[in-house]
Recover the amino acids of this structure.
């Protein structure tokens, strides 16, 4: 009699912990050596330097995000605070803990419908942080073979082609691997950065108009760099349109970490 | 069978108690839990110009006129403060009181409480609350208010010019965008908030 109860107890105990047994692994970090680069919107004519850093090899997946909300109830859809994530947060999930993965929505596809605050919280829970805009753009310049692939018109066109396709969830392993070994910076999802709100452009982005001078302090110090990099324009414009609690369907993230 | 069921439910009870204890400890609740859209949901730490260690909910309970500036800003920040002072004077004329004025520094590294005190004295900001915090706290507050900013040199920032009006619960109710904007809409919105019973 007693042994039967113990059996049930052990079974229930194990089931309650099954989430932990099948928790998705944390993504590998890739080391990116520092360097200089010309940001699209930076201090006029000046290159900015990026210190060496480490970045997740792939974007955070649905499976990994499920582990996170299991351990952090305040980031479940039913509990999240509106100022941190709007009504579109995880809106395509069946419920708090079930994303409803299937062949059209692979569990190792990038998690989307996550806000900036949610992405930050996920990274902090891993002892990491979001990449800065400069870090993302720096590593995002690279093609499969060149660190400055964005100077290559064919590579830029590939990126524009990706941007023009409707969003289709894909396993993160299907992203292209750049020369640093980072996968899927282009071609999977848009990605949050830690300082997404450091872009000072208005609808009228032709230069320092009178309108600009009233909207922004010292806006005149910033100007567009390589105007032929239209893909970068799209990224910057997209980031400038975001609010911190937005959770849209083709926007995900990956994490980064400083290196000493 | 009956004996087994008794044992089973006893074990189940123990298990459930155990699982409840395992759940993430609920947040320490203040006596007033902030609303879901309130900036007081941010738990960042700040210092005022009087070197008081505070959280943003020090602003709770009063309508606030708030902007993000920095003390070594040469041209534009004085104009934002002038715009805020214009609002302050107009409110006084219309006998609308109990409105707070706040400035938050986007340069926490260089804007110490002492620097803020100096700014307050030199710009005649009597009764205003000035905040300096951490880079993370500043980035989060700016994100929530929709303020854009970027460091462009060791001493300078480019930033958007926004004056936010918060209701008594710390929710953004209205924003005045740009410099030298006619404050009449802002004043009307402040008046609406001041006379709401919360």
């Amino acid at each position: 009699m007693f042994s039967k109860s113990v059996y049930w107890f052990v079974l229930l105990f194990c089931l309650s912990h099954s989430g932990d047994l099948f928790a998705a692994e944390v993504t590998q970090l890739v080391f990116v050596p520092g360097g200089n680069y010309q940001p699209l919107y930076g201090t006029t004519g000046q290159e900015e330097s990026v210190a060496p850093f480490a970045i997740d090899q792939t974007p955070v997946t649905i499976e990994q995000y499920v582990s996170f909300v299991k351990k952090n109830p305040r980031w479940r859809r039913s509990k999240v605070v509106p100022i941190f994530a709007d009504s579109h947060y995880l809106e395509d999930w069946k419920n708090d803990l079930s994303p409803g993965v299937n062949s059209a929505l692979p569990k190792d596809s990038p998690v989307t419908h996550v806000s900036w605050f949610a992405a930050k919280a996920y990274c902090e829970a891993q002892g990491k942080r979001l990449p800065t805009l400069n870090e993302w753009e720096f590593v995002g310049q690279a093609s499969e073979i060149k660190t400055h692939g964005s100077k290559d018109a064919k590579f830029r066109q590939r990126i524009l082609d990706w941007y023009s396709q409707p969003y289709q969830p894909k396993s993160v392993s299907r992203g292209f691997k750049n020369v640093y070994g980072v996968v899927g910076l282009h071609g999977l999802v848009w990605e949050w950065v830690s300082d997404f709100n450091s872009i000072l452009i208005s609808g009228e982005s032709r230069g320092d108009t009178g309108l600009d001078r009233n909207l922004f302090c010292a806006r005149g110090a910033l100007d567009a760099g390589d105007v032929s990099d239209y893909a970068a324009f799209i990224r910057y414009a997209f980031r400038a349109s975001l609010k911190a609690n937005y959770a849209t369907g083709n926007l995900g993230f990956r994490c980064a970490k400083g290196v000493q | 069978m009956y004996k087994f069921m008794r044992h089973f439910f006893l074990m189940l009870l123990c298990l459930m108690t155990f699982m409840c204890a395992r759940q993430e400890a609920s947040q320490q609740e203040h006596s007033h839990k902030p609303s879901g859209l309130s900036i007081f949901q941010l738990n960042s730490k700040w210092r005022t110009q009087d070197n008081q260690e505070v959280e943003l909910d020090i602003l709770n309970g009063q309508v606030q006129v708030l902007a993000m500036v920095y003390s070594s800003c040469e041209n534009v920040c004085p104009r934002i403060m002038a715009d805020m002072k214009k609002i302050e004077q107009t409110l006084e004329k219309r006998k609308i009181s109990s409105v707070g004025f706040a400035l938050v520094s986007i340069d926490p590294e260089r804007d110490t409480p002492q620097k803020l005190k100096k700014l307050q004295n030199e710009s005649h900001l009597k009764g205003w609350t000035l905040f300096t915090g951490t880079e993370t706290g500043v980035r989060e507050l700016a994100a929530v208010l929709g303020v854009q900013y970027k460091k462009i040199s060791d001493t300078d920032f480019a930033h958007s010019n926004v004056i936010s009006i918060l209701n008594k619960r710390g929710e953004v109710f209205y924003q005045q965008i740009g410099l030298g904007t006619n404050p009449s809409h802002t004043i009307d919105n402040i008046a609406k908030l001041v006379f709401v019973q919360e």
